[in-house]
Amino acid sequence: MLEITDLDAYYGESHILQGVNLSVQTGEVVTLVGRNGAGKTTLLKSIIGDIPRRTGSIRFIGTEIIDLSPERICKMRVCFVPEDRGIFSTLNVYENLTIGRANGDTAWPLDRIYEYFPILKTRRSQKAASLSGGEKQMLAIARPLYMGASFLMLDEPTEGLAPVVVDAIGALIKDIKSTGLTILLVEQNLQFAAEVADRYYVIENGKIVREMTNHQMAEDQQSLLDHLGV
Ligand code: ATP
To answer: Which residues form the ABC transporter domain (predicted)?
Structure first.
């Protein structure tokens, strides 16, 4: 579904991503791990066209998207949930869900969203600012579903959440995956990643240094921890 070849990305003179190759098949959950500053967020932002200077190839369902605008890429149903969750604090839950979606069919109409996320239905009139961390993360994941995402990228979805909420988010991602959605995840919590991921890429200093299946990860978690300096 997504095929990245020889991707380089820059912030001004800083050469951040260096020759990144990465692929995600339809229906997979792929997790990108790496130390702070390794380039994980830069990679996700490169895919949605939010990094001004990048070279190489990013193909999405066979179409080259590296030169497309973020708006065009968004219309291809490639969605990104940033680390800060990107929700509008002053709007309520319902408004956050429905803002910005053009008319038309969606695989995830509100009824279905509320079925998967009953708490969002209960809280639909509540301002997003007053939601708990876990509720905010659920809202952040529900928004792109309602917008019709086919490829979902989540940047550290468990950050700052209590263990019980992390478990709930894990169950949710597995449920979403079972509906056929393809997911690229940045995650530092390896226990969580092991619950949901099919494959891993390790990124170091802007380069992919390792690719592992979930099976390899189960056999040799220590080498991954070594990469992360844990
Ligand atoms: P973290 O786990 O801390 O979020 P990360 O792996 O997601 O880290 P990035 O946010 O992609 O890392 O950052 C990669 C490098 O790019 C870092 O050295 C960072 O300082 C630099 N960087 C990120 N954003 C910018 C920016 N807007 N301008 C200049 N440099 C930036």
So the answer is: 2-230
